[in-house]
Design goal:
By secondary structure, the protein is an alpha/beta fold. The chain is built from 16 helices and eleven strands. The strands form three sheets. It has a six-stranded parallel beta sheet, with helices on both faces. A three-stranded antiparallel beta sheet has the order 7-8-9, covered by helices on one side. Strands 10-11 form a two-stranded antiparallel sheet.
Length: 379
């Protein structure tokens, strides 16, 4: 049996990697958080002198420094940071870093090995590149949004998990890791153009294949994974809570039928779409006969793939979440522990947030700035 290393022993797989994160909102801060979680030294550059909100989990583990990038001193300090950094990530609209004199060309002139990660919704090029937008806008152009939600209502926003964090954060991180790996042979840095829209398009690869095979309809709530199938959707229970049913494979569907005492003929007709509306109506009536937790007791130990739909306050007390210690509490804020879990180079347990600008002087001294130069910046 393995034991978790002490926080001081868990340096993380990215220990020794220095990342400059330009302060912003959306998926870029989460990317910085995940890099810091796994041991990277993440220097968050901001002009914000206000104390950080303890609930801003995306700032955990970072070194917060304040620089006025429009001043000569602040601009020079950032470029001197670049000289010793491995990665820079920014989530501004195209042209912002150029106007600050911090474009990839300027940074690579100081450090040709720098990985320069750019995060946008539309990408650095194309007719929409300069347009503002948010997760829902980027998602809308991919085809994914049109497939989400009830058939008789407008498409429904899936929080901002799909474009911002799925298509954005994760693909930026993938690009950073690829570029760092490639640099070990070439010795050169490069620019990552991570567009949320591009990332979502990549996530849809399975569905592009299904469309080509004629297995995916344009209609909402009419397909296998969009709530159309009665065995892959959520049902309301007697106490106005919900269960999630995902009995896709026939053996799991058979287990469901046994627990609910439903006809075996349902199994042979599982994928006959004309039966789906009637089957869903029957299941909805059945699930409304018991409270959610009563259903969970009934399905316990089966392979029917039925789970409770937990609300925010219930998650931390779920037995599986507690057993894996999937959530931790720091500064009174419950938050996810770092993921994924590595056996030999695990991430350290998250710490509380640094005060605004608390690391500025120390970081600048580490770059070679003397106290007189730091004082002249009027930080």
């Amino acid at each position: 049996m393995t034991t978790e290393p002490a926080a001081e022993e868990a340096r993380g797989a990215l220990h020794g990697v220095t990342v400059i994160e330009m302060a912003g909102i959306g998926p870029c801060p989460l990317a910085g958080q995940m890099l810091a979680d796994h041991g990277a030294t993440v220097i968050l550059v901001t002009r914000d002198q206000a104390e950080p909100d303890p609930a801003d989990v995306t700032r955990r583990g970072k070194h917060l420094i304040t620089l006025d990038l429009k001043s000569p001193a602040g601009h020079d300090a950032l470029l001197r940071l670049v000289e010793s950094a491995d990665v820079l990530i920014e989530g501004y609209r195209p042209g912002v870093m150029e106007r600050l004199g911090l474009a990839p060309e300027e940074c690579h002139a100081r450090n040709p090995r720098l990985i320069y990660g750019r995060m946008t919704g539309w990408g650095q090029t194309g007719p929409r590149a300069d347009q503002p937008g948010h997760d829902l806008n980027y998602l809308s152009l991919t085809g994914a949004l049109a497939a989400m939600g009830p058939a008789d209502r407008p498409p429904f926003p899936p929080l901002n998990l799909v474009a911002d964090y799925g298509g954005g954060t994760m693909f930026l991180l993938f690009g950073v890791v690829m570029a760092l790996l490639e640099r070990t042979t070439s010795g050169k840095g490069q620019v990552i153009d991570a567009a949320m829209m591009d990332g979502v398009m990549s996530l849809l690869s399975l569905f592009h294949g299904w469309q080509a095979q004629g297995r995916m309809s344009d209609a909402r709530q009419a397909n296998l994974l969009d709530g159309g199938a009665p065995f892959y959707r959520c049902y309301e229970t007697k106490d106005r809570k919900f269960v999630a049913l995902a009995a896709i494979e026939p053996k799991f569907y058979a287990a469901l039928l046994r627990v609910l005492d439903l006809p075996e003929t349902w199994l042979t007709q599982q994928f006959v779409r004309s039966t789906w509306p009637d089957r869903a109506a029957v299941l909805q009536r059945l699930f409304r006969e018991r409270d959610r937790d009563d259903w969970m007791a009934l399905f316990d130990g089966t392979e029917a793939c039925v789970t409770p739909v937990l609300d925010w306050t219930e998650v931390a007390n779920d037995p599986h979440v507690r057993a894996r210690k999937s959530m931790v509490e720091r500064g009174g804020v419950k938050q996810a522990r770092p993921a994924p879990r590595l056996s030999r180079t695990p991430a350290a347990v998250p710490t509380t947030l640094s005060a605004a600008g608390a690391n500025t002087a120390a970081v600048l001294r580490g770059m070679g700035f003397n106290d007189r130069e730091i004082a002249a910046m009027d930080l």
